[in-house]
Amino acid sequence: MEKRTLGGLTVSALGLGCMGMSVGYGPADDATSASVIRRAVERGVTLIDTADAYGSPQPGHNEELVGRAVADRRDDLVIATKFGLRFGDGEPFRVDSSPEYARAACDASLKRLGMETVDLYYLHRRDPAVPIEDTVGAMAELVAAGKVRHLGLSEVSAATLRAAHAVHPIAAVQVEYSLFTRFVEDELLDTCRELGVGIVAYSPLGRGLLTGAVTSRADLSEDDNRLGNPRFSDEHLAANLRLVDVVREVAAEKGCTPAQLALAWLLARGEDIVPIPGTRRVSALEENLAAAQLRLDESELARLASINPEAVRGERLAAAPLARTGH
What keywords are annotated for this sequence in UniProt (predicted)? Predict the structure, then answer.
């Protein structure tokens, strides 16, 4: 697979987001999920994304799953994980970006992953009451100790990125980015490019909206967290699906699937952008990976540009998680 650069890291053009294998999208099977991870690696995917918060009812499950699945290919991969969202073990949910927690969380993640070093360690969410300089200073200590190779931030403002980068080089910012969610283009993308920071795009398929697979709320299981997402509400879903019709039409003419088209569009936005679509099925994985070979011409890009992200109905996240972003 084509390679791309995130700061000082070289990774595959498409990575694999593993969150849905442990939380958020209904029941999952560990053996099936592990087979998806291993198949992705066989196909040339080198960026595997997890976090200590991914798991229900107990956080950490996803790191353990990833660690087992990649144990025999560890040296070929870039393993990314995150800290900063605390819950489980009877604790109330909270954001914790304190230096003390950065150190403790890293040790716990390494143990769950079964690894001595994390290749890319993100601050998952930032507590605005904690100076970012203090948090990144502690993360830099982890680099110096050999526990972490590169640092990342997730869902932060351009100002926070600048302040963090002044303390220690930031390799990547992970942020939601898709045809339907493009706020990153307002300021953060330019700041990343100015500083030489890569963009890791999560939810590049709009949490499934852009695949065409979701046609109504009835397609979602009762424990699928999208039922609480404003864009999937009874109020907004039908209008959003009408916007997907443009993607469907262009994809049909191109001879590809809507998911492949949406990923190819994102890949075309710049060589410093690495989408990490998630899936729990090998068939969907193969579909997604084929997008890396797809090239869109100017007319196709122009038609997709006609989709106005401001016409998308509903916030991208429910109120509480949305309030934890952009600090």
Answer: Oxidoreductase
